[in-house]
Specification:
By secondary structure, the protein is of the alpha+beta class. It is built from seven helices and ten strands. The strands form two sheets. The protein has an eight-stranded mixed beta sheet with strand order 3-4-5-6-7-8-10-9. Strands 1-2 form a two-stranded antiparallel sheet.
C-alpha cells in the first residue's frame, strides 16, 4: 500500500512563511497544524487531533528580516509522548520553516531532560553563561565512563580558575566548553539505551543551516516517514 504524502501549505505573515497542513496517521487519525500569531514575530504551532484535542505545541520567534529564529518550547501531553513521535514532527516543522525563510541558525535554551532530543536533530551546545559552563564541566568531570573527557574537563576547569579576573578569556573558554560538551553528547548517544544520561543543568544550543544542508538526506527521510511531501 502506497503511503500518500502531504504537501505543506505556506502562508505569508509579516514577510514570514508559515507552514500549515493536514495529514493522516494510522495511530491518531487526522492531524492538522494551526499556527497562531501571538504578537510581533512570536508564533505557536499547534497540532490538533480530529476531535479537536491538542496533541502538541511549539512556541517560537521567527523574523526573516533579522535572519533570526528562536525556539522557546516544544510541549506534548504526557500520554502522546514516545511512540507517536509528535515532538519530532514539531521539530521538523520548525526546520522546514527555517529553511523556507532562509534563516541561517535557530537558537534555543534546552532543559536538562531535552538535550539529547535536540541533539538528534543537529542542535549543538552554544554555552554563553558561566554558570552553565561550570555545571557542565563538573558533570563531565564526575562521569568516569570517559576518562579522556574527564581529563579535558579538568584542564579547562583549571584554565577557568587561572583566568578568573580576565573576562575576555573566560568568554573564549565557553567556546572550548561548548566543543567539549558536544563531544560528550556524541559519546552518550553511542551508548546503549540502558546507559542513559540526564544532564544536571540546561544550556543554550544552536542549529545551523549548514548542518541541515549537509545532512539533507537524513532530514528528508524523516520528513517522508512523518508523511510530509517536502525536500530540503
Amino acid at each position: 500500500m502506497v503511503k500518500l504524502l502531504t504537501k505543506p501549505q505556506w502562508i505569508k505573515d509579516s514577510g514570514a512563511k508559515i507552514c500549515e497542513f493536514s495529514l493522516y496517521k494510522e495511530t491518531l487519525g487526522k492531524i492538522k497544524t494551526k499556527v497562531v500569531k501571538q504578537r510581533d514575530f512570536n508564533y505557536v504551532t499547534n497540532l490538533i487531533g480530529e476531535k479537536g484535542e491538542n496533541l502538541g505545541s511549539d512556541y517560537f520567534y521567527m523574523n526573516p528580516k533579522e535572519h533570526l529564529m528562536i525556539d522557546y518550547d516544544i510541549r506534548t501531553p504526557v500520554k502522546y509522548r514516545g511512540k507517536y513521535r509528535l515532538g519530532e514532527l514539531l521539530r521538523l516543522i520548525s526546520i522546514i520553516q527555517m529553511n523556507e525563510n532562509n534563516i541561517q541558525k535557530m537558537d534555543l535554551y534546552s532543559r536538562e531532560n531535552a538535550v539529547l532530543f535536540h541533539a538528534r536533530y543537529g542542535f549543538k551546545p552554544k554555552i554563553r553563561q558561566f554558570l552553565h559552563r561550570d555545571k557542565l564541566l563538573e558533570q563531565i568531570l564526575n562521569d568516569k565512563r570517559f576518562e579522556d573527557l574527564c581529563q579535558k574537563a579538568a584542564f579547562v576547569k583549571q584554565k577557568v580558575v587561572e583566568r578568573a579576573n580576565l573576562n575576555g578569556d573566560l568568554r573564549a573558554l565557553c567556546v572550548l566548553v561548548s566543543e567539549l560538551v558536544e563531544e560528550y553528547i556524541q559519546r552518550i548517544m553511542q551508548l546503549s539505551k540502558t546507559e542513559t544520561c540526564t544532564f544536571n543543568h540546561g544550556f543554550d544550543m544552536e542549529l545551523n543551516k549548514d548542518f541541515i544542508i549537509k545532512n539533507k538526506e537524513k532530514f528528508n527521510e524523516m520528513l517522508k516517514k512523518q508523511g510530509l511531501d517536502y525536500k530540503i
